[in-house]
Design brief:
This is T9SS C-terminal target domain-containing protein. It comes from Flavobacterium ammonificans. The protein is mainly beta. It has one domain. Helices cover about 5% and strands about 35% of the residues. The N and C termini lie close together (about 10 Å). The relative contact order is 0.13. The N terminus and C terminus are likely disordered.
């Protein structure tokens, strides 16, 4: 591989109060993971459910913190109804019926927890594991690039309630804030896996921030079409893709975190990011918007204590896959411990026009076995020449996670902000 990065000391942003903050990766004077997250969810104990949610919710309804709810089967919020959930409410999803919550087009959810009182969706099993229950589906009427401008969520659900897509980019499907979704992603025979949170045709007036997905059997966050802003999301120990975007999704994602484990993989794909515009070209209208992702201040980390050993055993793959005819603009993002960092679809012709649609600027590539490659091509000199240009301000390092991040192996309150006191970017070997 061609080397470009000379030794660079990462600069500090020093504020008047004496606090320093790293500008790359997730940011904040304090760790925004504190208080509302849970990194040992199997040790959490909840009271027995005293209320059951099942069937269809067709009128405005509210769930209260004083109760513990059992979500049974596929529950549909319909008829433009609003489902409100109080801070601190616990919803236990029935594993036997592979429970799921579907907010249908025109309806909305207002699940607004707080930093000290988050809303929790978790499994009913005594020993919880990935794929115990379905997940949450949020369906709206923002544009989706499929012929007919609509699609249906195919997870063996009632087709009358699962269509999404329309013409209203500014539609509002509600609020998800300070919410944890644990052990979702059940496998459905003939349909693959649910996703922990599926956003289909969701509009930009919908608020989605401070959402943590833990141990999903399917993708943690999947966005098909729509026009969404995502902020402070966490995907932790997902078996499949952490983020998947498709069918003309217009996404602005910022200050979000992916924590992968080397030994959790899926035969259908296990990447931090998978971005495409279609599965088959004949599905979409090329006169309409294709998938476009703007991503700022993300941290994507394989949280291994021995990355080189895991790579040698074939346990580590790429952090991102970008398909053809997909626009991405990544800035100030950290990618640490992957093999390699980014793979571009082999159908992409490497020329100036295409590379201008695939922007990676002010990146921090750390402990990766290679940076950016074309799929099935081990010669990446052209890509290294392009993205290694000093005008992109990309930085390369080979540090261990324990040195790179403030406190990555803290079982209770890990801190994945960059450890600016120790980081020096070295020549990439």
């Amino acid at each position: 591989m061609k080397n470009f990065a000379l030794t660079i000391v990462v600069s500090l942003l020093v504020y008047s109060n004496g606090t320093a903050q790293q500008e790359k990766g997730i940011i904040g004077f304090n760790s925004w993971l504190n208080n509302w997250t849970e990194f040992k969810p199997n040790k959490s104990e909840y009271n027995e459910p005293n209320q059951i949610i099942t069937g269809t919710i067709a009128v405005d309804s509210k769930l209260y913190k004083k109760n513990v709810y059992l979500l049974m089967g596929n529950v549909y919020v319909t008829n433009k109804a609003k489902l409100t959930i109080e801070p601190g409410t616990v919803i236990i999803a029935d594993a036997e019926s592979k429970a799921s919550l579907i907010i249908t087009k025109g309806a909305s959810i207002h699940a607004e927890g707080t930093e000290t009182d988050p809303i929790v969706f978790t499994s009913s099993r005594s020993i919880r594991k990935a794929g115990d229950w379905g997940g949450i589906l949020l369906l709206g009427d923002a544009p989706i690039n499929k012929f007919g401008n609509s699609a249906s969520a195919n997870f063996d659900l009632d087709a009358a309630f699962t269509t999404y897509g329309g013409s209203n980019s500014a539609s509002n499907s509600g609020i998800l804030r300070y919410v944890r979704i644990e052990f979702a992603g059940a496998k459905v025979k003939g349909f693959g896996n649910f996703n922990a949170l599926f956003l289909g045709g969701v509009g930009n007036q919908t608020s989605i921030e401070n959402v943590m997905v833990t141990s999903s059997g399917g993708d943690s966050f999947e966005v098909f079409g729509g026009d969404v802003v995502l902020n402070k999301l966490i995907s932790y120990k997902c078996s499949s893709n952490d983020f998947k975007f498709n069918y003309g999704a217009q996404v602005n994602i910022k200050n979000s975190l992916v924590i992968r484990a080397s030994y959790l993989q899926s035969s259908s794909g296990s990447r931090c990011f998978y971005a495409s515009s279609y599965d088959k070209k004949e599905e979409v209208d090329f006169s309409k918007k294709l998938t476009s992702i703007t991503a700022t201040n993300l941290t994507l980390v394989n949280n291994s204590q021995n990355i080189k050993l895991d790579m040698g055993q074939g346990l580590v793959r790429e952090a991102m896959f970008i398909a053809e005819n997909t626009n991405v603009d990544f800035k100030r993002t950290v990618i640490s411990g992957f093999n390699p960092a980014i793979i571009l679809d082999e159908k992409i012709t490497i020329n100036d026009d295409n590379l201008k649609k695939l922007k990676f600027q002010e990146m921090y590539f750390n402990a990766c076995k290679g940076n950016i490659f074309l799929e099935n091509n081990s010669n990446n000199e052209d890509l290294e020449s392009w993205y290694g240009n000093a005008s992109f301000f990309n930085v390369y390092s080979q540090g261990e996670n324990i040195e790179t991040f403030i406190d990555p192996f803290n079982d209770k309150r890990p801190d994945f902000r960059l450890n600016i006191g120790k980081i020096t970017a070295s020549k990439n070997d």
